């Protein structure tokens, strides 16, 4: 199985909008952080004449970084011509698109350190690199983010990215364990369904039917709290695993 299996499956496993959906939530997080910066600075205005300048400069930097992040996200999510998108004003190939997205994300993370947008850009760059087939490069970046910023909204996405990298490297048992561990660490994650499906998929591919059934059962139990299609898929796969018995 190995790499042939994972290269085919990873393109199906990572939904095009999975990262975009997480980034939408992060945009709100970035804006909320910006408001906190402004409020905190306002409370310190009496401390000295430089405070208003600091608040203004910090806010301007956050806003500019946020705008650049939105632009990079747009590049990442807009389909290239070979993905069914328009060739006019866009990119001819997904390789060109993800290469450009990776560069833009990295420019933000290196040029706007200390901003929330720069943090999000770290995950964006790794995600684009994974799409480019650079799992070896993306894996440590995903792991580092998930470990250092465990409370960030994108931490579960980074953890999933690290697991997808293991899939791309043909390390299915390790990928399954990584998905399962992330699901346990972030039980309220927006991508919990993806984590559990990933765990079930790779446990099954690795021949571990017991843990595959466990992951599917956990997802099936999320009825009403996870996307309906994911719950129904888990229920169907669980039924097949049990030999068609309800």
Q: What can you tell me about this protein's structure?
A:
There is one protein chain. Helix 2 runs antiparallel to helix 3, helix 5 (116-131) runs parallel beside helix 7 and helix 9 runs antiparallel to helix 10 (209-220). The longest helix has 28 residues, at 50-77. The protein starts with a helix and ends in a 5-residue tail after the last helix. It has helices at 2-13, 18-43, 50-77, 94-111, 116-131, 135-148, 155-168, 172-185, 192-205, 209-220, 228-241. The chain has eleven helices and no strands. It has a domain at 2-134. The protein is mainly alpha-helical. The chain is globular.
Give the integer mean of the pLDDT values: 82
User: Could you tell me how far the N terminus lies from the C terminus, measured between alpha carbons in angstroms?
Assistant: 30 Å
Shape: globular
Low-confidence stretches: 1-16, 37-46
Largest sheet: number of strands, sense, barrel closure: none
SSE succession: HHHHHHHHHHH
Based on secondary structure, the structural category is: mainly alpha
Rg of Cα set:
20 Å
Helix content: over 70%
Overall strand count = 0
């Amino acid at each position: 199985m190995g790499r042939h299996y994972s290269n085919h499956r990873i393109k199906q496993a990572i939904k095009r909008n999975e990262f975009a959906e997480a980034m939408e939530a992060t945009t709100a997080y970035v804006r909320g952080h910006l408001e906190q910066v402004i409020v905190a600075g306002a409370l310190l205005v009496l401390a000295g004449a430089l405070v208003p300048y600091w608040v203004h400069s910090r806010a301007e930097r956050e806003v500019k970084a946020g705008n650049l992040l939105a632009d990079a996200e747009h590049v990442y999510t807009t389909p290239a011509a070979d993905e069914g998108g328009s060739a006019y004003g866009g990119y001819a190939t997904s390789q060109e698109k993800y290469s450009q997205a990776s560069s833009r994300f990295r420019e933000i993370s290196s040029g706007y350190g200390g901003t929330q947008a720069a943090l999000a850009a770290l995950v964006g760059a790794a995600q684009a690199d994974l799409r480019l087939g650079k799992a070896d490069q993306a894996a440590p970046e995903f792991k580092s983010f998930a470990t250092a910023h465990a409370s960030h909204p994108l931490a579960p996405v980074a953890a999933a990215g690290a697991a997808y990298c293991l899939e791309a490297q043909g390390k299915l048992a390790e990928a399954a364990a990584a998905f399962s561990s992330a699901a346990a660490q972030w039980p309220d994650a927006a991508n919990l369904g993806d984590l559990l499906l990933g765990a079930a998929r790779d446990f099954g591919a690795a021949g571990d039917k017991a843990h595959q059934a466990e992951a599917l059962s956990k997802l099936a139990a999320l009825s009403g709290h996870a996307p309906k299609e994911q719950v129904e898929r888990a229920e169907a796969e669980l039924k097949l695993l049990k030999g068609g018995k309800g």
